[in-house]
C-alpha cells in the first residue's frame, strides 16, 4: 500500500485573534470519500484553501 494522496500536519491559520483552523492533521487516501462538515464560521472554507495551497498557513505543512 502506498502513502496518502494528500497529507497535512499541524495546519494553523489565524486572522488576528480569530483562529480559523488550529493544529489540523489530515491524511487523505485513495479510494475513500471524505467530507468537511460544520456550522457557519467553523473554518471549512479556510481548511480547503489551506489544503489547495490557495491560503498560506501560519504554522504546519
TrEMBL record:
<dbReference type="GO" id="GO:0005524">
    <property type="term" value="F:ATP binding"/>
</dbReference>
<dbReference type="InterPro" id="IPR027417">
    <property type="entry name" value="P-loop_NTPase"/>
</dbReference>
<dbReference type="GO" id="GO:0016887">
    <property type="term" value="F:ATP hydrolysis activity"/>
</dbReference>
<dbReference type="Pfam" id="PF00005">
    <property type="entry name" value="ABC_tran"/>
</dbReference>
<keyword id="KW-0813">Transport</keyword>
<dbReference type="InterPro" id="IPR050763">
    <property type="entry name" value="ABC_transporter_ATP-binding"/>
</dbReference>
<keyword id="KW-0067">ATP-binding</keyword>
<comment type="similarity">
    <text>Belongs to the ABC transporter superfamily.</text>
</comment>
<protein>
    <recommendedName>
        <fullName>ABC transporter domain-containing protein</fullName>
    </recommendedName>
</protein>
<keyword id="KW-0547">Nucleotide-binding</keyword>
<dbReference type="InterPro" id="IPR003439">
    <property type="entry name" value="ABC_transporter-like_ATP-bd"/>
</dbReference>
<feature type="domain" description="ABC transporter">
    <location>
        <begin position="23"/>
        <end position="61"/>
    </location>
</feature>
